[in-house]
Specification:
about 160 residues, mainly beta, 12-stranded antiparallel beta sheet, 1 helix, about 5% helix
């Protein structure tokens, strides 16, 4: 049973569209320990759920890390791998989600190469400023000093 937005908002630390508001772009990778051993990474979902990716490649650094989810039905056999500037989460169908280092999701590319881009404030870790679709159309968001959405402009 769904616990409701109040319970989820208390569990989730990053809600870019406001407290209690869930959105598919409220997704990020984090480490399971403070040692940065790159043995496992957690994908945190908008509802606070977690998908654990365990290392399947030899080694202990981030540059050679390849991790795989085996306990989730939706993300089963998807893999996370360092690409030189961040982490690529690649699904079995070839779709790729890109996460810059220590930042929430920045782009989503389907298996046909169509990419949706997200631009955020605070060097990529803050509120979503703009979402650009594969055909170039976009939606822009502005916020007040309390990080409440003030306006939405689309093209």
């Amino acid at each position: 049973q769904w616990p409701g937005p109040a319970a989820i908002a208390s569990k989730v630390t990053c809600l870019w569209f406001g407290r209690g508001v869930l959105h598919p772009f409220d997704i990020y990778l984090t480490f399971t320990t403070t040692c940065y051993c790159y043995q496992s990474i957690v994908l945190v979902l908008p509802d606070g759920g977690e998908v654990v990716y365990d290392r399947i490649s030899p080694g202990g650094g981030f540059a050679d890390a390849e991790l795989e989810a085996t306990k989730s039905t939706t993300f089963y056999k998807s893999r996370v791998k360092w690409n030189g500037t961040g982490w690529d989460l690649t699904f079995k169908d070839g779709s790729v989600w890109f996460f810059p280092e220590e930042s929430p999701i920045q782009s989503m590319r389907d298996r046909y190469g169509n990419t949706t881009y997200l631009t955020r404030t605070n060097g990529g870790t803050g509120n979503i400023q703009r979402i650009v679709s594969p055909n170039g159309r976009y939606v822009e968001f502005t916020y007040d000093t309390g990080n409440h959405n003030q306006s939405v402009l689309g093209q």
